[in-house]
Design a protein that fits this description.
alpha/beta; Rossmann fold; six-stranded parallel sheet; two-stranded antiparallel ribbon; 13 helices; globular; teichoic acid biosynthesis; EC 2.4.1.187; cell wall biogenesis/degradation; transferase
Amino acid sequence: MMKETFLGVDVAPVTYKRVISEISRNIDSGEQSTIVAVNPEKVMEACKDEKVRELINSSTLQIPDGIGIVWASKWRGGQIRERVTGIDMMSYLLHFAEQKNLRVFLYGAEEDSVSKARDNIEKHYPNITVAGYENGFDGNEDQVVQQIQDCQADVLFVALGSPKQELWIRRNKEKLGVKVFQGVGGSFDVWAGKEKKAPKLYRDLNVEWLYRLVSDPKRIKRQLALPKFAFCVLTKNR
């Protein structure tokens, strides 16, 4: 798949359906898939940290999670035309797992969040198999890996925050028979009902960042990554 590059960071020009199609093809060919959500904040972090850039670029699919990525692609005449958010990609993968009888494992977040997320996922997808879960505060990584292996998980969602979750996946993916890995940040908190998605109006207008900023003004430092990203894209030819 041809990918677009922004400040040295690869992003795949995909839709939700295209991601599912690619994953299905990889499963059929016995290949593992790793999905990482890319937004301007993550790109700016990758500009400062080569390790983060390499983590992103070595993933199978880098989905365009931020509206800034879509804007940058359009400005350059690229092919990215819509956001593919991490939380919604997780929902597509859960639906795919339910349809294909794939076993799901949830790893990360606090115990209350991950357990409630499991309960709500099972209610929303009554035919899904959540083979197991573990909170993100168990310090014994080898035991967690063994637990995932024992559950014969096919799809693994890791909610440890970025880049910790991507580092965890890279360290352990070859030890596991998991077919699909996705780092999902705070998605378990959303599934648990602790955090809310932005209202539909904000999502339709592509200003979820504004909703999050109003809801949590402390995010202002993180949101400054968007104008920095825009400036760099406009002034640098890479």
